[in-house]
Design goal:
This protein is of the alpha/beta class. The chain is built from 11 helices and 8 strands.
């Protein structure tokens, strides 16, 4: 396989013990020791702490010892608790998410950050969210990339809402790049934005469109019409047509050097702010 990363997330299962999750990481790592494991959102780490009655740093260290390489940015949604009470009242609160990523960074784990926009939040809630991320990045320097995520209302309890427009998507990319000057990378997630908007976003401050992706459920269950995966050639074409140079990177933003299905890791990819 030419894969460089396995991204693992799941639900909050009441019948599974924390050891089960640790074993998932361990088995993956032992089976494919060269593949980076990015796993378990802040919401899930908070759940593991609830199951074990242990602090976040203890939970994270067990996962690191099993082979975990980094944390995804999911579960942040919108940090404002008033908005969270409407869209995700049973999830870990915003302070828990921030504390978990702080603990991860202090242990040497890198992580990503996200924001879900285009639902019931207002502009001030988006600004507050970005400022809190910026403050934590100033403190720890542990975030790699920021990923604005557009809300897909179809097949949700809020299907009466309109989907964010492409204009709003591009404004969010540009705003994120301007405000998060201490984040090296801004991702235009093509599965969420669509190929055309993601391509345009490369001129609005994004420097990452994500990868080929093999299997994605969250956005497609919510009605996304984008394909579940793209070929390398399709991604190259998308990026070149936007006037940019395609560079394959691994989870930690290091250049991937290919020789067929075999690959090695090179130097960190350059930091860019789009074209």
């Amino acid at each position: 396989s030419g894969a460089t990363e396995i991204h693992v997330v799941g639900g909050l299962h009441h019948q599974k013990k924390f050891d089960w999750y640790v074993n998932v990481v361990r088995v993956i790592h032992e089976t494919w020791p060269d593949i980076h494991i990015k796993g378990w959102t802040g919401v899930e780490i908070n759940w593991f702490a609830h199951l074990t009655k242990q602090p976040y740093d203890w939970i994270l260290q067990q996962l690191i010892d099993a082979g975990l390489g980094s944390l995804p940015g999911g579960g942040a949604e919108i940090f404002d608790e008033g908005v969270r009470s409407q869209i995700c009242e049973h999830k870990a609160d915003s302070q828990a998410w921030i504390d978990i990523h702080r603990a991860a960074h202090q242990l040497g784990l890198r992580s990503n950050a996200t924001m879900l926009y285009g639902h019931v939040e207002a502009a001030q809630h988006r600004i507050d969210h970005l400022l809190r991320l910026r403050d934590l990045q100033d403190e720890t320097g542990g975030f790699q990339t920021f990923i604005p995520l557009a809300f897909h209302p179809e097949n949700t309890g809020m299907d009466y809402l309109k989907k964010p427009t492409g204009h709003m998507d591009l404004r969010m990319i540009a705003l994120s790049r301007l405000m998060l000057d201490n984040f090296d990378h801004i991702k235009a997630y093509w599965i969420m934005l669509g190929e055309e908007t993601a391509q345009i976003a490369l001129g609005f401050g994004a420097d990452d469109v994500d990868g080929t992706v093999v299997h994605e459920l969250i956005y497609h269950d919510a009605g996304a019409k984008t394909p579940e995966g793209l070929t390398v050639n399709a991604l190259h074409r998308m990026i070149r047509e936007a006037g940019c140079e395609p560079v394959e990177r691994d989870t930690l933003y290091r250049r991937v050097i290919r020789d067929g299905a075999n690959w090695t890791i090179g130097e960190p990819v350059p930091v860019s702010v789009g074209v």
